[in-house]
Amino acid sequence: MTETKHCSPTCKFFRCGKNAASYRRNTIWCRWTEEECQVVNCSYAMCIKRRLLPGGICGETVKRKTVEKKIEEVVGPAIKLRGKTLRKIGEKEIF
């Protein structure tokens, strides 16, 4: 099972909203804050694929969970019809 990973500025899908990320030796430097780029704390960090989750977690590494629900939970209770609406639709109850 894969583990969730934090996004890094070296990812090819990472972009800085202020265009302030620059390469300095082995690290990515933020010209806006004058320190090393930290995706977790930056409010201008973006992902081209729109997979950046809160806390700097990469959405590509998160496994989705699907939950089966009953039709009654999703749709809600049936609506009973009378009169003109009943004649137009032809059913006594609508979901």
Would you give an account of this structure?
There is one protein chain. This protein is an alpha+beta fold and 95 residues long. The chain contains two helices and nine strands. The chain has one domain (14-94). A three-stranded antiparallel sheet has the order 2-3-4, with no helix packed on it.
| Outline | elongated
Q: How many individual domains?
A: 1
Roughly how many Å is the radius of gyration?
25 Å
The helix count comes to 2
Mean pLDDT: 80
Distance between the termini: 40 Å
> Which H/E pattern describes the elements?
EEEEEEEHEHE
What is the beta-strand fraction?
A: 25-35%
Low-confidence stretches: none
DSSP E strands, number: 9
Share of residues in helices: 10-25%
Helix-strand category: alpha+beta
The spatial strand order of the largest sheet comes to 2-3-4
For the biggest sheet, the summary is: 3 strands, antiparallel
Topology (SSEs and partners):
Blueprint (H helix, E strand, L loop, with lengths): L13 E3 L4 E4 L2 E4 L4 E2 L8 E3 L4 E2 L3 E2 L12 H5 L3 E2 L2 H7 L3 E2 L1
Antiparallel strand pairs: 1-5, 2-3, 3-4, 6-7, 8-9
